[in-house]
Amino acid sequence: MLFFGSLVMCSLLLACNNQQDHLETSAPDKASTSEEAATSDSSNNPTDFSPETPEEITSQFPKSELSDSIALDSINDTPSLRAETPAEQGTLVMVSDGREERGHLIVSSVLGVEGDQTFQSHYSVVYRKDNQDKVLLSLPNFLFIQPSDKKLSFDKISFKETDVYLLTPQYRTGHGLEGYAFAVDKKSGDAFPLKLMRKGYESKTLLYADKGQLPFSQNERLVVHPPIGAGTPEEDTKDIYYQLDLENKQLVAK
What is the DSSP string of 139-166? Predict the structure, then answer.
């Protein structure tokens, strides 16, 4: 009986030691699991992420020499009226066709100063008369710069039988200004674009000095002050006189 009692006592002591060993070895595992969970929660904390920045506007037009100097600000998918002038029997307008990209210059150049507004779209020059639109000129992928978004005007030059309207979207270039010329017949009210002929060459734009007088009418001729720069030949510094040829819808330098 003494031997049996000793055997039972020994078994109980051995069981208690095994249970204590088990508890001591399992405790670190639980601590390790809790530490891993805390680490996992910390990595998913939203405060560890910086807020997303708005996506930059990307131009849909072909890259130009000015692309790197422009920061785009907005996109307009509805028609924008960029120029408007009433004529005797109708109205001349310049309007965007579809997407128009608005931006500003981030550096100054001969075309404008830093902060000037930029406009780019497929534009049309339209003559509106009797609730009908007649497209006089299309300007695809056209980019121009202005100091503000103020609506432009066509400059009117009167002749006996017709009025000539000059549209100059770009306000400075460093080598003279380029204007698009249109005629509106005083009797019929019909409007059409004018070609420019000089020294046997045809041009769609009239080049004139960016300082001084605008082109003007004198004795039924259009008088133009040419742009003058360093190295301009003396013969090219003189005023140019254009004769209005309505039959062929052109202005011819004489």
Answer: EEEEEEEESS-PPB-PEEEE-SSEEEEE
